[in-house]
């Protein structure tokens, strides 16, 4: 037990903003203590401060870490362990995107996107699992994408990384199914975050037949719901998957796509 309350310990990677920030918020609202990790240490710090202000008590801490770097992940886990205790709930959310015609896609950009989106989830999952096994309880929630189910042009590296996330999720779910540990992926369609803004600009540069605004409109037009996904839509599913009520849900890749993706 420590000074931050008695609920579970959650670690949210890429939690400084966007979807990760919304998930950190609902986990605090559920009574968990949350470590907000981000490569951008300032955004993690600001987010943790906001969470603590909103909660009215010390519910969150911040940790600067790069999920692609094993030494950084190990140091992050040490900090979280020392300050909050062993991680019960891991939200593998940190991710990056870029757009490029396939023939122009550089090896450097392939490696960057696949490393952050896929290797990062591998390293963080491997780092938290021993404590989950010992506890006989654990939740690993991997943020994938609708691009993990059906590919789109100009984002081959992103799509490949997210298809990989689903495979990683299924494999972890199977290996640890009988130890009280579940692993699931969430597959959001285009979501209103900085990444969405960034992607529209990158798509325009990769294919200038559409303006940035037209690209944004085209992405949203794909969603039968009639609006982009909100970070809170994704967070609500993460909140359920992190709960005791979701004990029998494992190995799934759950769409949050306003009926865009059906498989
Ligand atoms: N926005 C969308 O349309 C959308 C749709 C489907 C899936 N996703 C996925 O959701 C997740 C969150 O995306 P978002 O839209 O909130 O993006 P975002 O760019 O707003 O936030 C991503 C966060 O991850 C952090 N990050 C990046 N690289 C990191 C690293 N190496 N180590 C630690 N932190 C790192 C960033 O600093 C940032 O705070 C990503 O995995 C993304 O692929 C986003």
Helix content: 40-55%
How many angstroms does the end-to-end distance come to? 42 Å
Task: Tell me the name of the CATH homologous superfamily.
Answer: NAD(P)-binding Rossmann-like Domain
Structural class of the helix and strand makeup?
Answer: alpha/beta
How many distinct helices?
A: 8
| CATH architecture identity | 3-Layer(aba) Sandwich
Mean pLDDT: 96
Major sheet: 7 strands, parallel
CATH fold title: Rossmann fold
**Total beta strands:** 7
In percent, how much strand structure appears in the residues? Answer: 5-15%
Q: Assign the CATH class.
A: Alpha Beta
Radius of gyration: 18 Å
> Order of strands side by side in the largest beta sheet?
3-2-1-4-5-6-7
- The succession of helices and strands, N to C, reads EHEHEHEHEHEHHHE
What is the number of domains? 1
Indicate the low-confidence ranges by residue numbers. Answer: 1-6
**Ligand list:** nicotinamide-adenine-dinucleotide
Shape field: globular
Written description of the protein model:
The chain has one domain (9-256): NAD(P)-binding Rossmann-like Domain (Rossmann fold), CATH 3.40.50.720. Helix content is 47%, strand content 14%. It is built from eight helices and seven strands; from the N terminus they run βαβαβαβαβαβαααβ. The longest helix has 29 residues, at 107-135. Mean pLDDT is 96; it is low at 1-6. The structure holds nicotinamide-adenine-dinucleotide. Residues 13-14, 16-20, 38-40, 43, 65-68, 93-97, 116, 120, 143, 145, 188, 190-191, 193-196 line the site of nicotinamide-adenine-dinucleotide. Nicotinamide-adenine-dinucleotide (NAD) binds next to helix 1, helix 4 and helix 6.
